[in-house]
Write a structure and sequence with these properties.
Helix content: 55-70%
Structural class: alpha+beta
Radius of gyration: 22 Å
Distance between the termini: 76 Å
Shape: globular
Strand content: 15-25%
Largest sheet: 4 strands, mixed
Order of helices and strands: HEHEHHEE
Amino acid sequence: MLTNSRNEARSAAHTRSRRGIALVGAVVAFCLLSGCIENDQASALSALRSDRSHNSVRTISLDASAGKSAQAHAAGMATRHSLYHTTLHLGPGQCGMGENVGFGSSVAQVERAFMNSAKHRANILNGTFDHVGLGVTRSGGQVWVVQLFIDYC
């Protein structure tokens, strides 16, 4: 009976140890991923604002709600390894929307590709869009980017 108790105690200690290691690993992974995403989103916003500024288009503000949608969309595209647009629905107080989706080796490379495409460039330089939601996800050596533009009335 004593042996069973010792084995049970060892087993419980081993389980707690494994859980602790798993928890530490999860926290480290979360911190690394969230920092990467935040840095990539900041880079995407900086590149977008720079392109608008160089073309004498007013600055654009981040929209947190649109950002959540854009981030979910970017993650979905990365998971499926496929580019696709979403159906855009105007919300209260919104007069217009536009969306750019792309992937490449870096945020800067995707932004350059957007600016070299007439339709994507038109969204970026559309002065009526005053807010943007940005989604950026890294997967398989690629960066997946979603720019969700909004014109609030």
